[in-house]
Amino acid sequence: MSAIFDFLVNLWRFARNTLVGLLGRAPGFVWIEVGGTLPEFETPVGFVRKRLTRGPSPLTLQSLRERLARISADGRPRGVVLRLRDVEAGWASLEEAREELLEFRSGGGRVVAYLSDPVDTRSYYLATAADEILAAPLVTVGVTGVRTRVSFFKDALERLGIGAEVVAVSPYKSAGETFTRNDFSAEAREQAQRLLDGRYEELVRAVAGARGLTPAEAREKIDRAPYGAEEAVAARLVDGVCYEDELAARLAGNGDRVRLAEWGAARKSLKAPYRRRSRRRVGMVQVSGTIMRGRSRKVPIPLPFLGGERAGSESVVAALRGAEGNGRVAAVILHVESPGGDALASDLIWREVQRISARKPVVVLMGNVAASGGYYVSAPAAHVVSRRTTVTGSIGVITIRPYADRLYEKLGVNPVGLERGGGPGSWTQAGVPRRTSWRCSKARSGASTTSSRPGCRAAGTCPTSKASSAAGSGAAPRRSSAASSTMSAVSGGRFGRPASSAASRRGRRTSWRESQSRVRAGPRPRIPPTFSGRSWRRCGGRSSSSPAGCGRWGRTGSPMTDSILRSETCGREI
């Protein structure tokens, strides 16, 4: 039935294309407005939301490819004119759009970039893909370089009475530093500078190659920006200055005046492509946004503190299983546009990708960012494809626990907790971090523990050799629920239930104020001898601050965690 439908559609398009070729008049150049975030694909929306948000669909990389391919296949238009407005796309998306324009030029099409709005670095980077760059007389060309900015909230949160405790495996896992520091750590500054260096070199390469400059000359031009339109012409960054109504005459040169048409009108006079249906298809599954448990969602209007797009593990797993069960799907493309997120949700997606890869080829296409959990879910694929400016890799695992005891005091709130067990209140937001519950385990595994409360906890501290020997002498392990939760987040595994002490069996009422003024007594805890069902080799009773006494983890069954733990020994990179 589908073959008959395709035949009828192609028959109609053949008749239409014949009439358009004989009677229609194609424009000389087609306007294409480029702006926004340039996502890879258009996100499917429901009927109601589509009616509420009427208007033209945002330009995507896929729609840009289709437009350029249709113009090139028609053969009558000379080329396209880019109108660059409010370009907010990531560097990898800009790189992909730039390569599509260069490919269009290699096929004989002409690309002209017309700068009618103030131009920033991203817009000019995309404009360097054009044969010719023209600007309106009063346009400012601000190709001033690249910049990153990070806001640190430690002092602001302390004024409110809010603190944060951060546990990170790998010193480069710096996401929690915005809550516990007032400036970059050495590792965070190093990696931020490396990312900036990569983007800056890509910008210099593009400007130098497109404008016929040496890299040194391109850097000099960037350092002297911004420019007015005439100054940009003198600096060889722009080819000419004209108003939009003069553009057609300039593009025509000495020939007849050419006609420019917007894409919406031009598509009616262009030949339509024929439908070609294959018996086998390639499925597309997107992991877009922060990885969380549950269903995927996308907020129509991004608002502060409400969160952005979310890649739900349930939705992604269901889509992968649907592609697996569809007999017509020969392979799966997993498009990853995610900075990471929940460790458990990432592990569930990782498992599904690993399982499906044994039956069908899975190819990962990375977008602007595929880091942490985004890289984790990509690891089992048969092939992983990224762009030069994609931010990717896995640098560790992190857990953040906020606490608001001083805020509660200011508001006159007095939480009273009743406890049973070794430490059920370790993760409550009312209390301050517990000093002795899981510091040792984090130091031995290479994790560092920091708190925004001065003097509350030393980063990455480890007990003395005497305490370590006592822990390794066969004493019963004693740990808090916070330690178990963090280790489970790292490994995806589970520890056994803790042995209950006499005090925890009896239980007693403890007021919140009393619990904050008391420090737990007893021996320092040690790491349980099992980790995600696999073996773990302890420090052997020696001080874990000594390289000879550092502990090493066994395999956890998770490739991301294994790679992290293999490269970490008591907080030092090997």
From TrEMBL:
All residue ranges annotated as the Peptidase S49 domain in the record: 106-252, 357-421
Keywords: Hydrolase, Protease, Serine protease
MF (Gene Ontology): serine-type peptidase activity
InterPro entries on file: ClpP/crotonase-like_dom_sf (IPR029045), Peptidase_S49 (IPR002142), S49_SppA_67K_type_N (IPR047217), S49_SppA_C (IPR047272)
Pfam families, A to Z: Peptidase_S49 (PF01343)
Protein family (similarity comment): Belongs to the peptidase S49 family.
Name of this chain's protein: Signal peptide peptidase SppA
Lineage, uppermost ranks: Bacteria, Bacillati, Actinomycetota, Rubrobacteria, Rubrobacterales
